[in-house]
Amino acid sequence: MYSVPDQAGRLVVITGANSGTGREAARRLGAAGADVIMAVRTVAKGEQARAGILAEYPGAQLEVRRADLADLASVAEFADGLIADGRPVDVLINNAGVMAVPDRTATADGFELQFGSNFLGPFALTVRLLPLLLDGPAPRVATMSSGMANVGRIHFDDLQWSRRYRAWPAYCQSKLADLMLTQHLAALAFERDWDLLSTAAHPGFTRTNLQTSGPNLGRDEARWSPLQLGTRLLSQEVQTGTDPMLYAATSPDAVNGGYYGPGGRGGLVGPTVLVRPPRRARDAATAARLWAEAEKLTGVTLPAAPAAA
Questions:
Q1: CA quadruple 214, 96, 279, 1: dihedral sign
Q2: How many Å apart are CA 26 and CA 99, to the nearest integer?
Q3: How many Å apart are CA 197 and CA 91, to the nearest integer?
Q4: In DSSP terms, which residues pair with 94 in a beta bridge?
Q5: Which of 154, 225, 251, 287 has the CB geometry, 3.0–4.6 Å to 247, for a possible disulfide?
Q6: What is the pLDDT of residue 233?
Q7: Rounded distance between C-alpha atoms, residue 38 and residue 62, angstroms
Q8: What residues have CB less than 8 Å from 131, skipping those under 6 apart?
């Protein structure tokens, strides 16, 4: 299991921190001394997760705040709260997500749910928090992707899947978009001489509620999913599955634009290694086009002249 280096004095924001890899990241970062803001959609669930972590690590500094990535107004309110606090953000972990929603569902802003929650929400949060990130020493943005990004395609002619919705291709597009966010932000950091690392990770096949919550969203009764069989045969515990994200967020050896995931069977399980992003994620022109499209859709743009840290 990856050992998180000392994080004393560092402020870490984690989305989706009430369960799965987000909760595990909050637990281990809190144990390492970080001040952790647990950004969650449902505060009661966040407080329950916080209480569980504090029972294990009473000295952990954890705070729960509401941030619904499927609602850009909620993202703005959350970011404005941090900006009002005035404290630099050292690490932003874009972890929250939803997978394989069976029927096309819209966010509060009318976006297809997976594209909105998995990409546009994290994009808006990242850009809004850039001034706070750039105010700190050695800031970092770590974004959770998925091995399914390897088969993803960006459908610029129908980003919202309004014509013929398909659950898995929509999910794969959203996670490829996360990798493109990471790569373009890394390029911006290099071009503008920001002391910022933009990294990405994927958890392989990790046992969390992601495999059941998305596929059963909007259904009165849970249905069996092929993922459940895979979960039994080719998966790993959440502690190991969180390692790539924690490595991307905290390792002194992580590199700008680096992508980290399990190095075992088929990239599904095993210790963390540096992963080569799929070819489509390395297309700089497409990543820049997607970034520009995200700015139009969210109304959130880069600060006019953010100062280098």
A1: negative
A2: 21
A3: 9
A4: 143
A5: 251
A6: 54
A7: 7
A8: 83, 303, 306
247/95 Cα distance (integer angstroms): 13
Query: What tokens were used for 67?
Result: 């941030």
Q: Say what the pLDDT of residue 303 is.
A: 79
Distance, in Å, from the CA atom of 98 to the CA atom of 144, rounded to the nearest integer, reads 12
Whole-angstrom distance, CA of residue 133 vs CA of residue 92:
8
pLDDT digits (tens, 9 = 90+) for 223-243: 544 554 444 557 689 999 999
- Torsion of Cα atoms, 278 then 241 then 99 then 258, to 10°: -30
Average pLDDT, the chain: 92
How is residue 269 annotated by DSSP? S
- The percentage of the chain sitting over the pLDDT mark of 90, rounded to a whole number, equals 83
Give the active site residues.
171
Taking the mean position of all CA atoms in its chain, how far away is CA 197? Answer: 15
For residue 192, give Cα distances in angstroms to 1, 95, 268: 35, 26, 36
Angle between helices 121-134 and 167-191 (to 10 degrees): 20
Those residues with Cβ within 8 angstroms of residue 76's Cβ, 6 or more apart along the chain or in another chain: 124, 128
Torsion region of 127: left, alpha or beta (phi above 0 gives left; psi -120 to 50 gives alpha): alpha
Give the SS3 label for residue 208. Answer: coil
Residues 78 and 215: their CA atoms lie apart, in Å, by 28
What residue has token string 């088969």? 151
Find the mean pLDDT for residues 82-86: 98
User: Would you call 211 exposed, middle or buried from its count of C-beta atoms within 10 A (0-12, 13-18, 19+)?
Assistant: buried
Residue 307 has pLDDT above 60, yes or no: no
